[in-house]
Amino acid sequence: MKWGARMGLVSKISMFNKWNQIPSVPNAFVTDDVVMTSTSEQNPSLTYRAFLARAIDYAMLEMKKGNM
Fold first, then answer.
1. Which of 10, 15, 38, 58 could disulfide-pair with 19, CB 3.0 to 4.6 Å?
2. At 1, is the pLDDT very low, low, confident or very high (cuts 50, 70, 90)?
3. How far apart are CA 53 and CA 12, in angstroms?
4. Are 16 and 5 in contact (CB under 8 A)?
């Protein structure tokens, strides 16, 4: 059984926002497979890398703005 924590737009039912950030902890990002609610038949490595790249890009922008 695969356990996960949902990524989404509604914080009441989602653990992470669209940047894989924990809303209550602004400097905490999760970029592995836990944010995916299911697995595919193919290797998801590129998807995980895309999650990581998107999270890093967002974090860097927020750091430059002084929000983190």
1. 58
2. very low
3. 26
4. yes
Which pTM does this prediction carry?
0.70
Average pLDDT score, the chain: 79
**Which stretches of the chain are DSSP H helices?**
45-65
How far from 43 is each of 30, 55, 57, 59, CA to CA, in Å? 19, 20, 24, 26
Q: Residues near 41 by Cβ (< 8 Å), separated by ≥ 6? A: none
Residue ranges of the domains in the chain?
Answer: 1-68
pLDDT tens, position by position, 21-51? 888 888 888 877 776 666 667 777 788 888 8
Q: Cα–chain-centroid distance for residue 39? A: 16
